[in-house]
Write a structure and sequence with these properties.
Layout: E1 5-11, E2 15-22, E3 27-34, E4 38-40, E5 49-52, H1 54-72, E6 79-86, E7 91-95, E8 105-106, H2 124-131, H3 140-150, H4 152-159, E9 163-167, H5 168-176, E10 182-183, H6 185-189, E11 194-195, E12 200-201, H7 203-209, E13 218-219, E14 227-231, E15 234-243, H8 244-248, E16 259-264, E17 268-273, E18 284-289, E19 299-306, H9 313-320, H10 326-333, E20 343-344, E21 362-363, H11 369-391, E22 399-403, H12 410-420, E23 423-426, H13 432-441, E24 455-457, H14 463-481
Parallel strand pairs: 1-6, 6-15, 10-13, 16-22, 22-23
Antiparallel strand pairs: 1-2, 2-3, 4-5, 5-8, 7-9, 11-12, 14-15, 16-17, 17-19, 18-19, 20-21, 23-24
Helix pairs in contact: 3-4, 10-11, 11-12
Length: 483
């Protein structure tokens, strides 16, 4: 008897990957396709437009599926189900009769709709109460309104009752799974139009942002039967869909309640599973897995983002005159100054739990170039620790599971362990999102136990680091409360 296989699609910001996994969570094969992102500044706009090509992304997925078919040959019949994980806040408009893309994909990074936030009577706390999120132009609602007001073909499609607007997952599903506009709760939430408490589109938010309900995809459970994927002569039921960061928590199987999950790349992303939808001030709440059967286990997460990690490299290079290489980072992390050595990091905006966009980054006085590099890296570490401590209201985290480019520096992992007093488990798993999506396709089985290579960092006493952390916190409070 042939053991079952599971197919997962991970549509990311730089590439799409399609992979096959065994029932135990081991990768059988993986193929990828690059998807370019363009940046341009229209003359009539004060905002940079950051876009992708939906048809190019779709073609890349189809190419990967064809390679999967060729690789597996007759074993393709072993694929039992399929899943999708994608960018939550990237969206586009398309004709739901022909499938034609009417706009580019507006990237999650695109904030051209920001002016609309100044015209609405909705506060951050009201938005968070309804959606679990704060107001942000990165989310879909303002992008949707911008499209409805600036693309003539979108206006015409709306008049002709053939317009669909939604996260890119919905456009892909329309083309691959039977011309239906569908979306899961994780992607739906990132439009800022989805009610976290009621698990449905919120009419009050639709009215505020002037988005007609008729143009949105139908929101269904994470483990719905989204349709059938035809691969050669084999029909594969498509049984799961989730946002990329949410899917990544299931790479090892069911996420652990006493663990905090941290990924440090361009920015840092921190998540912890919680059934409590009322997170501490400054944290977000997102649905991870809302199943079709109401008696089955639901998974939510408290979330935090920290900007200014790898995204700050060009700024730090300008400030120091140094080339920020892995060796330069390692050299800086070896320093241990017993003085004010901090960086108030507002690169990309000061995010969780502070949420300020009106501050300018600044170093403490008298730092050498290498000390500035240290202060920058520790600013990211310190803000991660603050968010982990907030999440400890669920009980002290026993384990921090860390990944991403910055985590390759042993000293980064050790310092996080020292300040949180929790063991840090580093797994350089570049496939966490696609692997987690495959686990979802398999139905979150108990025997999903992939082999993981881990480095473990045990907390140690580090009084100099603790002193710098304390000085950074004092400087942060002065910075936040200055007039």
């Amino acid at each position: 008897m042939h053991t079952p296989l599971y197919l997962a699609i991970d549509q990311g910001g730089q590439s799409t990957r399609v992979a096959i996994y065994s029932a135990a969570g081991e990768q059988i094969c993986c193929f990828s396709a690059v998807c370019a992102t363009t940046h341009h500044q229209p003359k009539a706009s004060t905002y940079e437009h950051i876009e992708q090509n939906g048809e190019e992304i779709l073609a890349g997925i189809r190419d990967c599926l064809q390679k999967i078919q060729q690789h597996l040959g007759d074993d393709i019949i072993r694929i039992k189900s399929a899943s999708f994980a994608g960018q939550g806040s990237s969206l586009l408009c398309w004709n739901n009769q022909t499938g034609e893309a009417l706009t580019p994909v507006l990237s999650w990074q695109d904030i051209r709709g920001e002016p609309y936030l100044n015209d609405i009577s909705l506060t951050h706390s009201q938005a968070q109460q309804l959606t679990g999120l704060r107001l942000s132009p990165h989310y879909g609602a303002t992008k949707m309104r911008w499209c409805l007001e600036h693309y003539q073909n979108v206006v015409q499609a709306k008049q002709d009752s053939c317009l669909s607007i939604g996260p890119i997952v919905s456009y892909i599903f329309w083309h691959l799974l039977g011309k239906k506009s569908l979306v899961d709760p994780g992607h739906a939430q990132r439009t800022l139009l989805w009610n976290l408490q009621r698990n449905e589109w919120d009419q009050s938010l639709l009215d505020i942002f002037k988005i007609p309900l008729a143009v949105l995809p139908r929101c269904t459970a994470h483990n719905s039967r989204f349709g059938n994927l035809n691969l050669g002569n084999h029909t594969i039921p498509f049984t799961a869909s989730a946002r990329d960061q949410g899917a990544s928590l299931f790479a090892r199987g069911l996420p652990e309640r006493d663990s905090c999950y941290i990924n440090i790349g361009t920015g840092a992303f921190i998540q912890r599973v919680s059934e409590n939808l009322q997170a501490p001030e400054g944290l977000l709440v997102s649905p991870l897995w809302l199943p079709e059967n109401p008696t089955d286990k639901k998974y939510y997460a408290w979330e935090a983002t920290v900007n200014g990690a790898a995204a700050a490299i060009s700024f730090i290079q300008q400030q120091t005159g140094l080339d920020i290489t892995p060796q330069a980072i390692k050299n800086a992390l070896a320093l241990n100054p017993n003085k004010d050595c901090y960086f108030l990091n507002a690169v990309g905006g000061l995010s969780a739990p502070y949420w300020r966009t009106d501050l300018q980054s600044q170093f403490s006085d008298g730092l050498s170039p290498q000390e500035k590099v240290l202060a920058w890296i520790e600013s990211v570490i310190f803000q991660i620790v603050i968010n982990v401590q907030l999440m400890d209201q669920l009980g002290a985290a026993q384990k921090l599971i860390i990944s991403g480019g910055f985590s390759r520096a042993d000293s980064v992992c050790q310092k996080i362990a020292d300040l949180t007093h929790a063991k840090v488990h580093r797994s350089d798993n570049a496939d966490a999102t696609v692997q987690g999506a495959a686990c979802m396709a398999a139905g979150l089985p108990q025997n999903w136990k992939p082999v993981m290579q881990e480095d473990v960092f045990t907390p140690q006493a580090n009084p100099e680091l603790a002193q710098r952390f304390g000085r950074w916190q004092i400087a942060m409070q002065r910075w936040l409360h200055k007039s």
